[in-house]
Structure formats: C-alpha cells, structure tokens
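Figure 2 data, in text form.
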Amino acid sequence: MSLDVQGLGVQVFRGNRISNHWLALPMEFGFKQRHYIASLQLRANVYPTCETLSRGRSTVAVACRHCVSGTETCPHILGQCPAVKNSRIRRHHKLCDLLAEEAESAGWRIIKEMVCRAPSGAQRRPDLVFVKGGEALVVSQSGLRWPMIC
C-alpha cells in the first residue's frame, strides 16, 4: 500500500543531473553501502523515523528518540534536532569550504561571512560572497531576498 507522503522527495529531484550525479556510482563519492541506502531513503521521504514507523498505529510514540522535543521526521532530523546540531554545522561549513575552493579555482575572490545591513538596519551575514570583475554573487543558507548595504 502506498502512502501520499512516501516518495515525495523523488519528484523534487527527477531529471536534475547535478543533484543526481552521485546516484549511479556512489562508491566514487565515498558512500558506504549503508549511507547510500539511508541517503536514498531520506531523499524519498521513506527513512524509518518514528513518524513513518507509527503510521496506522496510534499507540506508537512519534517523539524524537534523541531530543524528545519534536516529532521525529526527516526534516526534524536533518534541520532542527538539537542532538545533531554540531554535525549539521560541520556539514554546512564543509559545503561552504568546497564552494569557496571551486569558486577560487575559477578566479573568484571569496569573502566569508561578510557583515551587511538591510535598509531596516538589521544586520545580515551571508555565508559567502564571490567577487569577480564588477560582479558579486551572494551565497546564503537563509536565502537573502532583500537589498543589502555591504
């Protein structure tokens, strides 16, 4: 029996060569078999979280096994659970470093965590700013969408 939420992640990535390139040859990207399977499950929203394991069973607990403060779902594990916060931060910094290395090799100057101000005066700190010629690219996990003064 198929559930409406199962496989939702598949639709997001269908036909996207850039984010799918690791699927065919996972060992080339350093995946162990168990990590590859877990990655596929997370991507398809079928990872065995408490929430997915409790479907159809009202007596099964759905609270996160690590922090107990939220429902254990894929988004909770990947983005909100305080028990994996340090891992999430390390993964974020590693991605920023990889992006910065690639951009530098392409001739961009990199500014990390530049302080900017929104017109309202609020301080913003994008993860990376790439500068080349008269062009600047702002890279931020939070997806800055307002004018900034840097």
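Caption note: Residues 85-105 form the longest helix (21 residues).
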